[in-house]
Design goal:
Organism: Drosophila madeirensis
Radius of gyration: 28 Å
GO cellular component, one term: endoplasmic reticulum membrane
Largest sheet: 4 strands, antiparallel
Function: TRAP proteins are part of a complex whose function is to bind calcium to the ER membrane and thereby regulate the retention of ER resident proteins.
Strand content: 25-35%
Number of helices: 3
InterPro entries: TRAP-delta
Structural class: alpha+beta
Protein name: Translocon-associated protein subunit delta
Distance between the termini: 119 Å
Strand order of the largest sheet: 1-2-6-5
Amino acid sequence: MYRQLVAVCLIALMGASGVYGSCKATVSSFSTQDATILTQLAHVAELTLQCSNSAQPSLFAEFPCGKVVPVAKVGDSKYQVSWVEDIKQGSSGNVQVRLFDEDGYANVRKAQRDGDKVSSVKSLLDITVPTKSAYKGPWVKAEILAAFLVGGVAYFAFTTKSKVQA
């Protein structure tokens, strides 16, 4: 009887604290810097995850658009996730990314199947990824500037010619 009570208490304690305990992440990011000939901007977030019990779980990331993707493990406690967005929709700022472990991902898939809100599923960790907008080219194209310059020179030449002939 005593062993059963201890086992139930341990299971309840593990369930309350989570399998991975508390996790913290440090994030570094990269965004496409020059988009003059591109149609989409790429963003990459690299994070170092430190859990209280030294676990290294498989992770899945959910973006604000609702898309859920696997997170690549690139080293000891280092993970990387990337996404793309159209240039017209891309802007600088912070992107909130929710991270799930395998159990959390199963709950996300279940919520999607049942038509429930994914936001009601508890994430393992929420991170903020800073993104930068990309250079999209000069405000005035060089061809237009050259055309106006040629037009100005032609106007000056014709007006000067007509003054000389008069």
